[in-house]
Amino acid sequence: MNYDVKDLKLNAKGKDRIEWAERDMPVLRGIRARFEKKKPLKGVTIAACLHVTTETANLMRTLKAGGANAVLCASNPLSTQDDVAAALVKTYKIPVFAINGEDNKTYYKHLNAALDTNPDITMDDGADLVSVLHSKRKKQGETLLGSTEETTTGVIRLKALAAEGLLQFPVIAVNDAATKHFFDNRYGTGQSTLDGIIRATNRLIAGSIFVVSGYGWCGKGLAMRAGGHGASVVVCEVDPIRALEAVMDGFRVMPIADAAKIGDFFCTVTGDINVIRKEHFKVMKDGAIVSNSGHFNVELDLDGLKALSKSKKLIRDAVMEYTLKSNGRRIHVLAEGRLVNLACAEGHPASVMDMSFANQALGAEYLVNTAAKLENKVYVVPEKIDADIATMKLKSLGVKMDKLTKEQEIYLSSWEMGT
Ligand code: ADE
């Protein structure tokens, strides 16, 4: 078996942690039990490019249980948990190509190693495999059954590809499933981002001014949780509806140019480029802590910050202190502007990844069953799969709900009855 991981001796720790996460992933466990019996992915090769975490390990085990030849590479050079990579290879016999801290060249070497297995299906978090397939390995893309996509940023890239008529195969936008983005993006990002910032800095959030750039599902979760810690939360937005929503959710909304002057913590979750720039760094307070929890490390203009600085020093693990030439103020950037929740903490907790990865597993099964009938477009996860996942999650939580009466069903499907 081909693989490239840091150290197989980390296996035992990785295995224990994978099993710890598994305990909080009842939906995925249920799917795995069915997959083990029915083998719906028999003989299908799946190359996944996901953050190499304990939760992803449980997805990979599920795909393998379904009969797939599953292979994994990392979707970010800083998010790989090396003990998990070791356990996947050694205990679960699943090939992994990922090493924490790998340089750009190795990152792409690993993506290509995963694609060298000639997958029928690819699974992306950020559309990097699809991007390589559409640039460097076009021939391979012509015969691919399809792909799934985990994150908002990836879905945006894929829709751009489809809009230009270039998409070579159908894609299932796992991110757009309700059981994914309502929970993972909101509660997952909310908790794991604060976890990353706190682990990296050990600073008190209470009483601080916490600036959140972007009020999508991730921004909503982060603002809510920062507020829960006692911060005064400021939201920066470009969309009037979202800005209004932030106001009515009780947050101050202002342009980043104003927020830059008052914030103690800054975190970008926009999916866009150069959201915090030179003119903003220049006016920040001494000691400001700046991070990003969006998928790519493009949201902070770190080249601009470097140009403004007379020195930079790694003051704590993952905390780079930049001292500005103009006023001697110190700006602290976490994890080189890469997603702070995975680089400084462990990503979202298992309980929420349970639903995201249930969508991935069932999305792969759906592709195997229906890809031949699909066009080269971006599809949402079928509503039935989404509802089934929510039902399974509720069941695992021991939560019961109501059922419509016959009379209510008729009322909801009629138009005659009014005042
Ligand atoms: N994205 C965010 N959190 C994650 C996790 N725990 N595992 C995999 N991908 C993630």
Structure characterization notes:
The chain is of the alpha/beta class. The protein folds into 2 domains: 8-180 and 347-396, Adenosylhomocysteinase-like (Rossmann fold, 3-Layer(aba) Sandwich), CATH 3.40.50; 186-343, NAD(P)-binding Rossmann-like Domain (Rossmann fold, 3-Layer(aba) Sandwich), CATH 3.40.50. Helices cover 46% and strands 16% of the residues. The protein is built from 18 helices and 15 strands. It has helices at 11-22, 26-38, 54-65, 82-90, 104-115, 128-135, 138-142, 152-163, 178-201, 217-228, 240-248, 256-262, 278-281, 302-308, 340-343, 350-370, 383-396, 406-412; strands at residues 45-50, 69-74, 96-97, 121-124, 146-149, 171-173, 209-213, 232-236, 252-253, 265-268, 288-292, 309-316, 319-324, 330-334, 378-380. The strands form 2 sheets. It has an 8-stranded mixed beta sheet, sandwiched between helices. Strands 3-2-1-4-5-6-15 form a 7-stranded parallel beta sheet, with helices on both faces. Helix 8 (152-163) links the parallel strand 5 and strand 6. Helix 1 packs across helix 4 (82-90), helix 9 (178-201) crosses helix 10 and helix 9 packs antiparallel against helix 16. The longest helix is centred in the middle third of the chain and has 24 residues, at 178-201. It is globular, with a radius of gyration of 22 Å. It starts with 10 loop residues before the first helix and ends in a 7-residue tail after the last helix. Adenine is lined by residues 50-51, 53, 55-56, 188, 192, 342, 347-348, 353.
